[in-house]
Write a structure and sequence with these properties.
The complex is a heterodimer. Chain A is of the alpha/beta class. Helices cover 37% and strands 25% of the residues of chain A. Chain A is globular, with a radius of gyration of 18 Å. Chain B is built from ten helices and no strands. Classes of the chains: A alpha/beta, B mainly alpha.
Chain lengths: 253, 256
């Protein structure tokens, strides 16, 4: 199912995207999805629905079997160098480099995106401050607490000032306080113009943050709309009921 | 290559160098000590009981092979472990999702190990030349032999890191394939001293040709034609680079 957007800049334009792994698992079964520039878009679905595969395909960590995905008009396969400049990815699993300190992690990441030294220095200081990591800048990533590692991964995703930020389960396993802090920060950068794609299976998170939500299950987009539109479409009173009705799964508390 | 790609490539290379420079005792000190132990034990202790080989003392005869051995092992070990470790931790995803090209990624991983091994070989050579007087029959052949053999094994290390699924698998390639080929390639002896069928079998070992090329460059003695050997090393280096380039472009075992 797709919501066609015309005459507006598309941050993401996915058409007929399919992904079948070597094992034969069909993770994506023809995804059509369009996200307008500046939107805060939520992808809601249970584990194994295809959320991470979709994100991996957009970011180049996975190669699509067929179909296309464009980020601000640049194809993620054919013109990957341009497409990836736009994207910042905060992955679901913490994947920090063991050898690097907090500061080096940010510095090296920025280098991969071609940022010059002076610009990097300024941005590192800014993000360390925003994510309260200044005191830990010389600590190696592996010695940080779980919450700090999560902040670190999000800071890294923001380092090259991406126009399209992908947050894959950013609050999984973090405490309520940090969750609220992160919500506040991502809302702020969205208001400043960054397009955000958030995957979550926390209903309240999707409800709190997203302008539009796509419900995904078994590699297919089941429905796209605002919270109100989804409730109306499924003839239910809460987003939780939408999720339950659409996916047939229990909601994660 | 535009500026983003240059900065990206330079950063990747810097990261690879930082990796081995941040643990110098393990990555540089250990291999250097190993080389000196070989020189001391085989050269000084046994050398006095062995007459000249190829017109030079035994200790001088084995030094080119030891330098090459150090080059080969460090190129291979560095690159295979670096790539495998980043794959296992998935920290490589940060690089794979960046705009840096597949070829820059390959070049940085290949050169990382090559630079580490070159650093060790330069220090080992400088120190060995303080211990014994080293001849230099043909510096170009000596340097080219080391460089291309190093690049070949740096690429082989990348390939092993790409294919290998576990640390145990990767280290077993080194223990059960690479080390025997190096030792049987004639680091410590001339093939002329071997009886049949070992003499013929040694000619099937590619490292035998590398050792003789580097040895010819230093002492002017070789059991085979060093020029043909060098050409073969260059050809194999180009071939394995082409294989790796193809695999990186496909994202083989890197991108799902």
């Amino acid at each position: 199912m797709s919501s066609t957007v015309k005459n507006e800049t598309l941050a993401l334009d996915v058409k007929g995207l399919k992904k079948t792994y070597d094992s034969g698992t069909k993770a994506l079964k023809g995804i059509d999805l369009q996200i307008k520039s500046g939107q805060f878009f939520g992808l809601l679905g249970p584990n194994g629905a295809g959320k991470s595969t979709l994100i991996h395909t957009i970011t180049g960590l996975s190669m699509p079997t067929s179909g296309s995905a464009k980020v601000f008009g640049s194809d993620v396969v054919g013109d990957y160098k341009t497409a990836r400049m736009y994207v910042g990815l905060s992955p679901q699993d913490i994947n920090l480099d063991w050898f690097l300190t907090v500061e080096q992690t940010l510095d090296f990441h920025a280098g991969y995106y071609g940022m010059r030294k002076k610009e990097r220095r300024q941005r590192i200081d800014e993000l360390l401050k925003v994510f309260s990591l200044t005191d830990k800048k010389d600590s190696r990533g592996m010695f940080l607490s779980g919450g700090m590692k999560r902040r670190m991964v999000i800071a890294r995703a923001l380092m090259h000032k991406p126009e399209f930020l992908i947050l894959d389960e950013p609050t999984a396993g973090v405490d309520v306080e940090l969750r609220r802090e992160l919500w506040k920060y991502v809302k702020k950068i969205n208001e400043q113009g960054t397009t955000i794609l958030l995957t979550t299976h926390y209903i309240e998170e999707a409800e709190e943050l997203c302008d539009q939500i796509a419900v995904i299950n078994a590699g297919k987009i089941l429905k796209i709309g605002t919270v109100a539109e989804l409730k109306k479409a499924y003839k239910v009173k809460t987003l939780e009921d939408v999720y339950l009705k659409a996916t047939g799964k229990k909601v994660q508390s | 290559m535009n500026s983003v790609q240059w900065v990206g490539f330079y950063t990747l290379l810097r990261r690879e160098c930082y990796r081995f420079l941040s643990i110098p005792r393990q990555t540089v000190g250990g291999p250097l000590l190993e080389t000196f132990l070989y020189i001391s034990v085989f050269g000084a202790a046994l050398g006095s009981r062995i007459s000249e080989i190829g017109g030079v003392s035994y200790v001088v005869f084995i030094i080119p092979g030891l330098l090459l051995m150090s080059m080969i092992i460090n190129c291979y070990a560095n690159n295979s472990s670096s790539l495998a470790q980043q794959k296992m931790l998935r920290s490589i995803d940060d690089q794979l999702a960046s705009p840096v090209s597949n070829y820059s990624l390959l070049a940085a991983y290949t050169l990382g190990g090559f630079l580490r091994a070159s650093l060790i070989v330069v220090i080992a050579f400088a120190t060995a030349s303080l211990m014994v007087q080293l001849p230099m029959a043909n510096a170009w052949i000596f340097v080219s032999g080391l460089v291309f053999s190093g690049l070949f094994f740096a690429s082989l290390g990348v390939l092993a890191g790409l294919i290998g699924q576990t640390n145990e698998q990767i280290s077993s390639y080194q223990t059960f394939i690479l080390q025997p080929l190096i030792f049987l390639g004639g680091v410590f002896y001339s093939v002329a001293l071997l009886p049949e069928p070992f003499k013929t079998l040694t000619h099937l070992d590619p490292i035998f040709y590398m050792i003789n090329t580097v040895r010819f460059g230093m002492i002017g003695h070789s059991d085979v034609n060093p020029y043909w050997s060098l050409l073969a090393i260059i050809a194999f280096t180009i071939a394995i680079t082409a294989v790796n380039a193809r695999l990186f472009k496909r994202g083989y075992k890197l991108r799902t």
